[in-house]
Amino acid sequence: MKRIPKVAFVASGGAARGLAHLGVLRACEDLGIHPEIFVGASAGAVVSAFYAQNTPLDMLVDGYRPPWRRRHPGRPHLGMSTFFGLPVLAEFLDPGHLVSGLFSIDKLERYLARQLPINDFRKLPYPVMVTAVDVDRARRVVFGHGHDDSVPISQAVAASCCVPGLFRPYRIGQAYHLDGEIARTLSADLAIEAGADVVIASNIYRPPSPPSPGSRSIARQGVARVLRQTINIVLTQKEQMGLELYARRHPNVTFVDVAPNIGMIGYLNQYAARSLILRGYRTALRKLAEAKARGVFGEMPHLRPTAVAN
Question: Biggest alpha carbon distance in the chain?
Answer without folding.
Answer: 63
